[in-house]
Amino acid sequence: MIKVSGLRKSYGTVDALRGIDLHIRMGEFLTLFGPNGAGKTTLLKILSTIIKQTHGKVEIDGLDISEAHYDIRKKIGVISHKTFLYGDLTARENLLFYARMYDVKKAEERAHHLIKEVGLDGRENHQVRTFSRGMEQRLSIARALIHDPNVIYLDEPYSGLDQHAALMLRNLLKNLHTQDRTIIMTTHNITHGLEISDRVVIQLKGQIVFEDKTSNHSTESFEKIYFEKVGGQA
Ligand code: ATP
Fold it and tell me: Which of 181, 219, 221, 222 has the alpha carbon at shortest distance from 201?
């Protein structure tokens, strides 16, 4: 579903990605670990067509990201630190705005369903600027799913969520993890990263230094590997 070959990205003199090769199949859930500055967000931004790579190639569902921005954006949903929400609009209006952008059928129904799913029922007609950070994060999850994308990127999605919201997100991700959906998540939390993924990758200084099936690891064994790989080099 996603093929990344020889991917490099430089910001001036900073080499954020130094040759990433990664194949992710349809239906796979991959968790990307790595210390601050490893290049995880940069990788997800390139895969989302938000920024361009310096070298290398990415194909999503057979489409080259350098050539098919619009078609690729329709297939993906992104949950990141940025909520991409409008403070002056209500929760419902925000979702309807994105629904129109993606030409979603039965938009009212879909928005209502998602607001309920992320636990914001009762607040749908409140302006987003009155929301707490966790509530905004919940709504941004609904926003990312409005067009039912079959590729989902989550960049540290648990940050800012309380325990209930974290549980809601975990259950939502479990439901989203189907045969025809591909999910990539970055997190610094080893428990969250292992609990629903199929494969784990450790990125360090713009390169992949470890990858394996999640089922081969317990939290303890993976934590040990993580610190062996990253310790002292981060
Ligand atoms: P974190 O875990 O802290 O979110 P990360 O693994 O997501 O980190 P990136 O945000 O991708 O890392 O950053 C990788 C490197 O690229 C860092 O050295 C960072 O300073 C640099 N970088 C990222 N964005 C820019 C930018 N717009 N301009 C210049 N340098 C950048």
Answer: 222
Distance 40 CA to ligand 1 centre (A): 8
CA distance between the termini of the chain: 31
Burial of 14 (0-12, 13-18, 19+ CB in 10 A): exposed
Nearest to 219 by CA among 197, 199, 193, 198: 193
CATH number of 1-75+152-157+184-234: 3.40.50.300
Alpha carbon of 33 to ligand 1 centroid (Å) = 14
Give the model confidence (pLDDT) of 27-43 as tens digits: 999 999 999 999 999 99
Q: How far is the CA of 83 from the centre of ligand 1 (A)?
A: 18
Task: Give the start-to-end residue ranges of the domains of the chain.
Answer: 1-75+152-157+184-234
What predicted TM-score, i.e. pTM, was given to this entire model?
0.93
Distances in Å between the alpha carbon of 181 and those of 43, 150, 168, 170, 191? 19, 4, 19, 16, 22
| 38 CA: nearest ligand 1 atom | 6
